[in-house]
Amino acid sequence: MRIARYVHDGEVAFGVVEGDEVAELASHPFGPITFTGNRRALAEVKLLAPVLPSKVVAIGKNYAAHASEMGGEVPAQPLIFLKPSTAVTASGETIAYPPSSERVDYEGELAVVIGRLCRDVPLERADEVVFGYTCANDVTARDQQKSDGQWSRAKGYDSFCPLGPWVETDLDVTDLRLTTTLNDEVKQDGRTSQIVHKIPALITHITSCMTLLPGDVILTGTPEGVGPMSIGDEVSVEIEGIGRLVNTVVAR
Ligand code: MG
Predict the structure, then answer these.
(1) I want to staple 180 with a disulfide (CB 3.0 to 4.6 A). Which of 24, 123, 188, 216 is the partner?
(2) First to last CA, the chain
(3) Which CATH architecture has domain 56-251?
């Protein structure tokens, strides 16, 4: 299923995307799915970020070629950091370029959406806590990532975590093409098979530290080819089998 979150006539709802329509759900999608019977044309709704995570857990340097372009190697254990829930924004919304930075980068990533409360998840049961997958852009103020020595500010500005356009629940993500395009020029062109610490290992590692809740998001790292954006640019992250996350950059 392809699960979207949207607003129609001032009402926020989840729905299942079927072709160019969306079938409205009676409640959130993390339990039994029931429909209200309302159907809307996709063109008539405004998509929102597909989930409202309590936290976004991101992985640094999880593709060898990207670790190398950053001047390092993939760490032996997954390197995790947090992006605040307030950084999340939807496809079609803007990325606000802060005046305090002179270098804001795109990082196209596969995002995992968690479906149930979980802690200390063993490797062989990691699949059970996955709800689905979406596209993400781990927007980063690269200058502040270096100067601050840790990444909370550089990765945490409002709008620095576009997610969407929806969550795909039935998908084998072991080898999908991921591209990031800036103003029609392909800048990143990787495959999820290049992910070093695989999704089950990430879930086991993260939940050995913190409880994950339904709707929480794991960003699995970015392929090589990261680079800067400018005010006025259009950036998109597209993953085979999921869709295309599109945002424009504006001055904050
Ligand atoms: Mg990243």
Answers:
(1) 188
(2) 36
(3) Alpha-Beta Complex (3.90)
